[in-house]
Specification:
Blueprint: H1 2-16, H2 19-38, H3 43-70
C-alpha cells in the first residue's frame, strides 16, 4: 500500500510540483491568445512567441529548482 501512495504522489508531483511553471504557462498562453485574436498578431508570430516564452519559463523553473537543490 505504501508503494501505491508513493507512486501516486510522484505522479501528481510531476504535474503540479511547480505551481509557478503552470501558472506562468497559462498566463503566457492567455496573453498570446488575446494578442492573436484581438490585437491582430499573426498566428505564426504567436506560435513563435509561445515557443520562446515556454523555453524561457522552463529555463527559469529549472534554474530555480537547481538553485533550491544546491541549497541556495
Amino acid at each position: 500500500m505504501n508503494f501505491l501512495r508513493i507512486a501516486l504522489q510522484e505522479l501528481i508531483g510531476m504535474f503540479i510540483d511547480d505551481g509557478a511553471l503552470a501558472l506562468l504557462s497559462i498566463v503566457l498562453i492567455a496573453v498570446i491568445a488575446v494578442a492573436v485574436e484581438y490585437a491582430g498578431l499573426p498566428g505564426f508570430a504567436g506560435g513563435i512567441l509561445l515557443l520562446i516564452g515556454c523555453i524561457v519559463i522552463l529555463a527559469e523553473s529549472t534554474y530555480r529548482a537547481a538553485r533550491k537543490k544546491m541549497g541556495g
